[in-house]
Amino acid sequence: xxxxxxxxxxxxxxxxxxELSDVLALKQQLRVRKGLPICLQELLHDxxxxxxxxxxxxxxxxxxxxLSLAKGLEAAQELREAATKGxxxxxxxxxxxxxxxxxxxxxxxxxxxxxxxxxxxxxxxxxxESGAAQGFTAREVGKTALTWACMNGHGGVAxxxxEAGxxxxxxxxxxxxxxxxxxxxxxxxxxxxxxESGAAMDLIDQEGSTAxxxxxxxxxxxxxxxxxEAxxxxxxxxxx
Length: 240
Known about the structure:
InterPro entries: Ankyrin_rpt, Ankyrin_rpt-contain_sf, Ubiquitin-like_dom. By secondary structure, the chain is of the alpha+beta class.
């Protein structure tokens, strides 16, 4: 059995040694079991820092030191991965360690975009509270966090982003807004939320379609009804 101890002397974990090939495998286990970011973990044995490639013996005691400051690109990548999966405690610790919350991958996608796209409400809330910028878009498709959330039907995330001041009429490279995406995909609750927030109904995408056209073409009758009722009620239209 391999035992991991905190600096305070409290045992953090006991893991069968046969499950661990090296120090990196142990760090991965501690992330899964305890929500500890890999990049913030430093493991010591008899006061000596263990390299990720170091082999582990059994029985063996190691001490965990949790770093207070994140290390550059490695931490930013782990933040994006954690945001994608909604690993709230990992995200919380990385933000506390001053990880760059707006760092991007090669496609220009930030942690907030990943969390929004996958519907992780608590992670999105935490990132917004930390000051993550939501106006940025994914470089190759031009979608904001709100667009991703609405496209995928994540109403809870969309509401958070709107309350935080998201541009409800932002267009991606296809000139599609969040409302056009939500309407075309049949996300009734999201469409209702966007209409209540004042999203413009008559903006046209690059193929000449409005939100109503997209909903009707795809057979989303409830969305069509909402949009028609909104038109009668005088919801915002596209600027003339």
